Amino acid sequence: MAGAATEGKPSPALPLATLIGRELRGDGSERPLVRYGHSGFAKRGEDYFLVKPDCLRVPGDPSSAFSVFAVFDGHNGVSAAVFSKEKLLEHVMSAVPRGISREDWLQALPRALVAGFVKTDIDFQRKGETSGTTATLVVVDGFTVTVASVGDSRCILDTQGGEVSLLTVDHRLEENVEERERVTASGGEVSRLNLCGGQEVGPLRCWPGGLCLSRSIGDTDVGEFIVPIPHVKQVKLPNTGGRLIIASDGIWDALSSEAAAQSCRGLPAELAAKLVVKQALKTSGLKDDTTCVVVDIIPSDHCSTPPALSPKKNQNKLKSLIFGRRSHSSVGKLSKSASLGSVEEIFEEGSAMLEERLGRNFPSKANLPPFRCAVCQVDQEPFNGLLTDDVGGCCSAPSTPWGGPYLCSDCRKKKDAMEGKRSSHSTTCR
After folding, report:
1. Which pick of 55, 97, 237, 341 has the fewest CB atoms within 10 Å?
2. Catalyses which reaction (predicted)?
3. Average pLDDT, integer, range 318-326
4. Mapping DSSP to helix (H, G, I), strand (E, B) and coil, where does residue 166 land?
């Protein structure tokens, strides 16, 4: 399946500080075209994806258009992946203040993504199901790309200069020392699977539950120290645009980021996604669900396919896709002379501490009644003037002072459990 979204010219707005310098100078004031395609093969049937190219911040205003793409790799069932596909974007958008400018929207988006991921996790865990999912959510607004992710579904960026950038962080316990230390400090145990006789096998896992990931949505049986707080990165593409490849670990276990990008350069997005999947299967076989979404962000004055390769090479690659062969000359890096700019990093944060992600210096006006929870967006009146959750419940002992925005009782308990300040209700192994 493939499609395209054409965004209209944005209404005049201040630039996003100095980091949207090209828009300030007038370069790239035209919204780019967004083309996309997806492909995949199922082994367990637990991968899901989301494609929403026609979102509007302001209903009826095409200048507020943005696009959303996501990949969810479920485990221990499909419930968490399906729930996240249906609810995650809604929860993110509910955390964005209404009536704000594009600049303010882009600045508010990283914080809203954190709130949306945490709310999705809380709501799913209330269902009492034990499945979990990775989540990689990509928001494209003009040439600005914002990526939030938990788990090991990855998003890479390929630009005209042939430079491949990783926009996500893999939350695998085997490979991420900081995450291992955080999980153990919060009360989890990290070790390999112990067979009879004491032999340890396989990758590092978190116990209880035996999950290989340190961050996910769901997984009520593993423990609250497996957090849904995403790594978030926001970048500004050069006015030559770029290509995003978003895929589950069935792709990345078989292909490096560079190999995936090189395998499909010059092809339109829908064929590029098919070729990435085909190359992954050729490399390692169908060992896991494989899902790939390719998104091309194309300057409006260019043709629909990124000019990464000459027309002749593009035709050769198309033939090789159809007939099962690849031209060796078609997988080289792009010419450096084609690069007319560089990727500008606007924001990056991966802390698992909710206070750091929601902001310590929250405006005081947010603490005026009614109190709106920064995560679940529910207005609540204070109980006897208290702003914390130290009212009722079996786990109501005061925790450390909270320097961030107001959190309701449930979200405060969630925060404390994720930080190991309260015992998790999740004790079942699987």
Report:
1. 97
2. O-phospho-L-seryl-[protein] + H2O = L-seryl-[protein] + phosphate; O-phospho-L-threonyl-[protein] + H2O = L-threonyl-[protein] + phosphate
3. 38
4. strand
What values do phi and psi take at 349, rounded to 5?
-155, 135
- Residue 9: pLDDT band (50, 70, 90) is very low
Residues 160 and 50 sit within 8 Å (Cβ to Cβ): no
DSSP secondary structure of 45-68: S-EEEEEEEEEESSTT-GGGEEEE
Query: By CB neighbour count within 10 A (0-12 exposed, 13-18 middle, 19+ buried), where does 26 fall?
Result: exposed
54: nearest Cα among 96, 89, 92: 89
- Would you say residue 109 has pLDDT above 90? yes
**DSSP bridge pairs for 117:** none
Burial class (CB in 10 A: 0-12, 13-18, 19+), 421: middle
Does residue 38 contact residue 296 with C-beta atoms inside 8 Å? no
Kindly compute the dihedral angle of the four CA atoms of residues 114, 116, 121, 126, in this order, to the nearest 10 degrees. Answer: 140
Closest CA to 135 of 87, 83, 79, 71: 71
Number of C-beta neighbours around residue 287 at 10 A: 12
Ranges of each domain in the chain? 29-169+228-301+343-353+369-379+406-418
**Rounded distance between C-alpha atoms, residue 228 and residue 219, angstroms:** 10
What SS3 class is residue 335? coil
> pLDDT tens, 189-211?
999 988 877 788 899 999 988 99
| Closest among 341, 313, 308 to 20, alpha carbons compared | 341
pTM of model > 0.85: no
Q: What is the pLDDT of residue 423?
A: 58
DSSP 8-state assignment for residue 223: -
Distance (Å, whole) CA 258 – CA 80: 30
DSSP state of 371: E
Task: Name the phi and psi angles at 244, rounded to 5.
Answer: -105, 135
Structure tokens at 416: 């404390």
**Sign of the CA dihedral with 318 first, then 322, 328, and 333 last:** positive
Q: Of 237, 276, 249, which Cα lies nearest the Cα of 23? A: 237
CATH class of residue range 29-169+228-301+343-353+369-379+406-418: alpha beta
Token couple for 415: 């925060």
Q: Helices 409-418 and 102-125 meet at what angle, rounded to 10?
A: 80
Please report where in the chains the tokens 């954190």 appear, as a residue: 114
Looking at residue 57, its pLDDT comes to 93
Give dist(CA 242, CA 343) in Å, integer: 9
